[in-house]
Design goal:
This protein is an alpha/beta fold and about 280 residues long. Helices cover about 50% and strands about 15% of the residues.
Amino acid sequence: MNDYKEIERSIITKYRKTIWSRFVKAVQDYELIKENDKIMVCISGGKDSFLLAKCIQELQRHGRFPFDAEFVVMNPGYNEINQKMIDENAKRLNIDVKVFKSDIFDVVTTVDKSPCYLCARMRRGYLYSKAKELGCNKIALGHHFDDVIETTLLSMLYGSEIKTMPPKLHSTNFEGLELIRPMYLVKEEDVISWAKSHNLTFLNCACRFTKESVTDESRSKRKEIKNLIKELKKTNPNVDMNIFTSMSNINLNCALGYKKGDKKYTFLDEYDSINGEE
């Protein structure tokens, strides 16, 4: 087994350009971590959240200012094998995790429709409550670049709206808590490469529904979008970056309408006051 120091070193050497630099850029550009923050880093057991934890550790050691971090694993009802894998990976990667249990899987099994949606909402509630208990002001999740662009297309093609997954978000139900996504600019292919280079095996999906072959519509649609992007990249290698950049380059003069808060606007509102051609 590789020594954890070698795994850590690879993040700032072999993967400096593809992982570390993009991680740091997201933290700086979106002002995700500030001096004296106390961050609860959520580890689900997958590759993304474990890499997030290692990057956070590296930033603590060599960053420009001090901040605290708590590395937390929520067990929603994993079987012993899956929980053991998480524990062993945490030990191998030298991450001191705090594990707490919830009854999410037991509750979700009683629901007939959209179990993944309910599971996600319950997870978020438990995590926010735990962050408050630990005295944290921020919660870090492992969503990466591919999650962002897939969410963007899902919203357009199946939600009939243009919106994306933001790099940070204030909690509406837990005052003073903020959700951050430091892996925002890191591509999934590079996370996979990092894991494979060290023969690391993480949980893919430990959900009971997956094991019982019960699918959720949102899960299958996300896979469909992932495959669509893969196909589009065959003729346009930059299509993923173009999707991402488009969300920071919205031309409201050419939009039929938009929403801000609870208020809706249409292009007709300012149509007569705008001069010029497209």
